[in-house]
Amino acid sequence: MDIARSIADLRRHVALWRKAGERVGLVPTMGALHQGHLALVRAARSECDRVVASIFVNPKQFAPSEDLASYPRRETADLDVLRAAGVDLVFVPATAEIYPPDFSTVVQVSGLTTGLCGAHRAGHFDGVATVVTKLLIQSLPDAAYFGEKDYQQLMVVRRLARDLDIPVRIAGVPTIREPDGLALSSRNAYLSQEERRIAPGLARVLRSVAAAIAREPAAVAGEIARSVAELKNAGFAVEYLEVRDAETLTPVVTEVTAPARVFAAVHLGRTRLIDNMPIG
Ligand code: AMP
């Protein structure tokens, strides 16, 4: 497995593969890798000849009040995990490689980013869209892999690739969960023992809302009220719990008539957790 720390080195590797007619898959991550990330690597491995993973904790997608400084960083362990998973190249740029001092461009996707996490994390999706656009242009992969765990992000990335005519297929990979249902996340490392005990309640509630609305599509408002109360009782602070159209992410407030998903963000102590599930 090769390691590239510069954009020039990344491009050199990928150019050789493309010249040889090999299909290249990109798996962007912020490191602190877990089985969720490895599911993306496996999907890329199965569909592409070469897999590039990137590890970059992108400062632009963290608001000043968020956890940029404490975000888990374990480069050596991550590289071991990626080597064992059969990754061909890891791109690990320093912050200045991605954002030189006079960096002045923002990629902003409107509409899709106004609600859900976009309403609660100022500037977050501008940071995501900017860095993903750069990673796609830097590596020019045939396909790039993103988790449904961050479903709004997946939709934003699909839209920017389409709008900016970046010739890449954006692939979505289903969420990997702990046996008790908790969606794997690098931020789960922040949870205390007591919080870890409570945390799977989020997936349980989402699963029950999704099943109830699948049975009774006009029960959206009642189900949301019921499940917000249930989450609060379980010890979560609820940021949002909403049903949205699975494609456009427009709110569904009364009745589900097209493919939809239920989305939630909650806080447990200092940890923010997100999850989402399809309805039906
Ligand atoms: P992150 O390192 O948290 O920025 O995540 C990198 C990629 O892994 C994103 O596309 C995430 O959606 C994806 N990912 C994170 N957690 C999971 C999970 N539990 N299951 C599937 N994909 C995930």
Task: Characterise this structure.
With 280 residues, the protein is an alpha/beta fold. Helix content is 39%, strand content 19%. Strands 1-4-3-2-5-6 form a six-stranded parallel β-sheet, with helices on both faces. A three-stranded antiparallel β-sheet has the order 7-8-9, with helices on one face. Strand 3 (50-55), helix 3 and strand 4 form a beta-alpha-beta unit. The relative contact order is 0.13. The model has no long low-confidence stretch (mean pLDDT 97). Bound molecules: adenosine monophosphate. The site of adenosine monophosphate has 17 residues, from helix 2 and strand 5.
Layout of helices and strands, plus pairs?
Blueprint: E1 2-4, H1 7-19, E2 24-29, H2 35-47, E3 50-55, H3 75-84, E4 89-91, H4 95-98, H5 117-120, H6 124-139, E5 143-147, H7 151-163, E6 169-173, H8 193-198, H9 200-215, H10 220-234, E7 237-245, E8 260-268, E9 271-278
Parallel strand pairs: 1-4, 2-3, 2-5, 3-4, 5-6
Antiparallel strand pairs: 7-8, 8-9
The chain binds adenosine monophosphate.
Q: Biggest sheet, strands in spatial order?
A: 1-4-3-2-5-6
Any idea what the radius of gyration is? 19 Å
Major beta-sheet overview? 6 strands, parallel
Proportion of beta-strand residues:
15-25%
Order of helices and strands: EHEHEHEHHHEHEHHHEEE
Could you say which overall geometry the principal axes of the C-alpha atoms support? globular
Can you count the helices? 10
Structural class: alpha/beta
Kindly state the percentage of residues in helix: 25-40%
Uncertain regions: pLDDT < 50 for 5+ in a row? none
Indicate the multimeric state: single chain
How far apart are the termini? 41 Å
| Mean pLDDT over the full residue set | 97
